[in-house]
Specification:
alpha/beta; two-stranded antiparallel sheet; 8 helices; 9 strands; globular; binds S-adenosylmethionine
Amino acid sequence: MSNKEIQDEINQLGPWFHNIHLPDGTQTFPDHFLGDFPTFKWRNIQNSIPADLSGWKVLDIGCNAGFYAIELAKRGAEVLAIDLDDHYLKQGRWVARQFGLENRITFKKMQVYDLAHIDEAFDMVWFMGVFYHLRYPMLALDIVSQKVKQLLVFQTLSIPGQEELTVPEDIPFNSREVMKAPGYPVMAFIEKSLMGDYTNWWAPSHQCVISMLRSCGFKVSSMPEDETYLCYKDKSLHTDFDTWNYSEYLSATGKDWQHTDNDKTKWK
Ligand SMILES: C[S@@+](CC[C@H](N)C(=O)[O-])C[C@H]1O[C@@H](n2cnc3c(N)ncnc32)[C@H](O)[C@@H]1O
């Protein structure tokens, strides 16, 4: 295909959110309002990810036009890339063909919540740019945590600031003032819109991200990029599932909870 033909197809497939540098040098969205997005993010993250992902199964949630799926497949990973939007999935399939990676990436129309109904688990899960768009973010994180064998790369829009604190083991009823302390895990609800985008619902604080991830069994090992958390499964952590709400999870994901044995030790 000539450069002109490729450019024509890019135009037909637009509008784009990912600016992807195609093998022939053409770019899908060179005038991106954020700059060379997401290449400038990937540059900071890339060295924190194993260079050789041969044999790795990777899940890219909210893959959009497939920028990250492509980069991870280039390293040898077998990628399942999901998104709810046909428009972006079409872009992703086309981009994968341009790189000759269509056999290594499967694009599938799925909501993050649909992952509760597949058996597969993944060596690495890429969960960037989606969390704050969700009405049910904690449910999504609980679902995603069940799909990660090893490594989770998590990114969310957040409340500005990097304050952290040691979360109290218990908060007496009359000591709830602590919830107003700088660094206490909080999540801001965006009732109207943010940046003109009504699909932005939540912005957690930095400590809130760490705490939510910990509550799902993850230990943050580094932050290679702004608002981006590299996390590993830490089996020593007590997750929410160990404590009380397995049946709530089952109910929230449309599974039978009334006839399911609620023995928490059975599903670690
Ligand atoms: C801000 S873009 C982020 C794209 C990419 N992950 C990144 O970090 O550059 C959000 C993407 O998530 C998708 N998305 C939003 N809600 C979703 C959901 N509930 N399940 C799956 N994908 C979703 C959107 O269609 C869009 O492609």
